[in-house]
Amino acid sequence: MPDTLSTAVTDVVELTRTLVRCESVTPKEAGALQHLERTLKPLGFSCERMDFTQAGTDDVANLYARIGQDKFGNGRHFCFAGHSDVVPVGDLSSWTIGPFSAELSGGYLFGRGAADMKGAIAAFTEACARFLARRGRDFGGSISLLITGDEEGPAVNGTVKMLKKLAERGETIDACVVGEPTSSKRFGDMMKIGRRGSMTVDLVVRGIQGHVGYPERLDNPIHRLSALIEALVREPIDQGSTHFQPTSLQFTTIDVGNKATNIAPGTVKARFNTRFNDLWTSKTLLAHLKERIERASAALGGNGTIEFASVEVSGESFYTAPGPLVELVAGAIRDVAGVECELSTTGGTSDARFISRYCPVLEFGLVGETMHKVDEKSAIEDLKTLSRVYETVLDRYFAA
Ligand SMILES: [Zn+2]
Q1: pLDDT of 300-329, one tens digit each?
Q2: Which of 37, 151, 152, 382 is catalytic?
Q3: Which residue from 29, 190, 198, 343 could staple onto 61, CB 3.0 to 4.6 Å apart?
Q4: 85 is catalytic
């Protein structure tokens, strides 16, 4: 564990470096939450570890820290959500700088999690420190940090269960910003106000195995599958909606495993993933896709069958209509960084999909260009600017 753990520093750069040095690859906590707790407590936050377990998944450590009015008071509750876990480093030999050394070089802070998203956690912590130093604890509401160690993994023992626990004991959140690295090319150019849903489907197509020389005696499932793929991808699923790109469907694998040259197989498996917009729910989309597949299969005739062997929905689409929260954050970005922020719904899923069931939520953070890549980095200047943006958001949210 880094020796800096003994001193709680709220300087955004130093705090990010300390967090990056904790090798918290999902589901390891590796001292990251522990250090955060040690930093937040002296600021007056009450810290609660919310560790969850579930059979078949790794145990996960999470941290919920809150300051301000009594949790059942009438003051508004602003929540910052994020994750302290990081994705694996991948090919270590491709890194030019140690992924957990948190080196500063050429105006950047390098390391796994610098962008996604330890930098944002540090920026929000520093923002809180400055806000509380000026306003004191009696600022008319409460601020919390909801930090999970399970965002880059299965996301089962993290944000979902934390939110459920808060709801069960009557704690409500009025607004939430997730610190994902949403900026695209330059700091402040993009926030996410929604995300597409994601669903993965495993198909098993069965036919009749047989000798390739006797096609009349077999029913080739590969041919059937190719017709099904055609039926799914030929026509666009939709044209997109006001706030979203068109729904996309991509086959990710086809598995036959047939070594013989003279046998047509009896079974073929395939998998596709779809990223769907707000014109669908996973249910309505699945029904639509099934209908397309069944129609195509019926047109082929024969005895082949199609089974939806597994359907995994990792998130429904969500959307926060531009309103007070979006305007507040966009205004802070404009005034602090001088950048007009695009409101986007592109990209992968994030934990914001769970939070959207409870309160208005948006995502805003650092430039995500190097996230999940080798030599992940954040501009030191951006870390400082992000912290000032978050501070301005708090100031205006709790305007006297
Ligand atoms: Zn992330």
Answers
A1: 998 899 999 999 998 899 998 889 999 999
A2: 151
A3: 29
A4: yes
